[in-house]
Amino acid sequence: MTPSTSKRSRNLKLVLMAAAVPALLTGCEDEPSGKVLTSLEECKVQTEIAPAECEAAYYKALVEHEKLAPRFESERECNEQFGACQSAPANPTGGSHSYMPSMSGFLIGYALSQAMQPRGYYGVGGVSPLYRDYRSGGYLRPGGERVSSNSGTVYGKYGNTALPARAVTVSRSGFGSSAAARGGFGGSSSRGGGGRGG
After folding, report:
1. What letters, b where the CB count within 10 A reaches 16 and e where it falls short, cover 33-72?
2. Rounded to an integer, what distance in angstroms lies between the CA atom of residue 177 and that of residue 164?
3. Which residue in 3, 76, 103, 175 has a CA-CA distance of 20 to 30 Å to 47?
4. Which pLDDT does position 141 carry in this prediction?
5. How many CB atoms within 10 Å of residue 184?
6. How many of the other CB atoms lie within 10 Å of CB of 121?
């Protein structure tokens, strides 16, 4: 093979690889990546995750909820967005009293591989508590990212169960587009609607 032929061959491989990357990324958006469940009882009727693993994920989500549920200074503002809110656990640093929504669901992220899973179940890749936004009807993760508008399978990035390092404190400025621009909880800057089924 001549040097020029070798160079052309190498360039062709690079072009083909560059063209394949967007195709792979696009394909991932159509792959099931997780499941939104609204109660422990749903673990008994769903068929994608081993029931025992689903129940364990629910209890892990409850633990994360206590630590990471969004904190509101005003009970009224919390209720307006999420319905019946409750007092948040006392702040160990002695900060002001706050309120948090109840956990209204949980997201189980699928593990990347189904290999070695009994009876074809998806493995659990992670879990996140979810909060139902009464204004939009969507389920939100603790950082305010929208996951889905209903329970069921989610696809692509909506199965992401990454959690914030600490609870988000929601400011008094509200949840409109201006608050979203400053990183307000569940603002319109969060693109959602990953769910496509129930």
Report:
1. bbbbbbeeebbeeeebbbeebbeebbebbeebbeebbbbb
2. 21
3. 103
4. 95
5. 22
6. 17
**Contact call for residues 139 and 161 (beta carbons, < 8 A):** no
Alpha-carbon span 122 to 112, nearest angstrom: 9
Please tell me the distance from the alpha carbon of residue 153 to that of residue 167, in angstroms, as a whole number. Answer: 26
Residue 66: partners with Cβ closer than 8 Å, 6 or more residues away: 89
Rounded distance, CA 27 to CA 29, Å?
Answer: 5
| CB neighbour list of residue 160: distance below 8 Å, 6 or more residues apart | 33, 34, 109, 145
Residue 118 backbone dihedrals phi, psi, to 5 degrees: -65, 140
pTM exceeds 0.90, yes or no: no
Produce one character per residue of 159-181: b if its CB has 16 or more CB atoms within 10 Å, e if not. bbbebeeebbebeeeebeeebbe
Q: What is the dihedral of CA 158, 163, 166, 170, to 10 degrees?
A: 10
The tens digit of pLDDT for each residue in 142-178 reads 999 999 999 999 999 999 999 999 998 887 544 322 3
Q: How far apart are CA 141 and CA 174, in angstroms?
A: 18
Token readout for 49 is: 């995750």
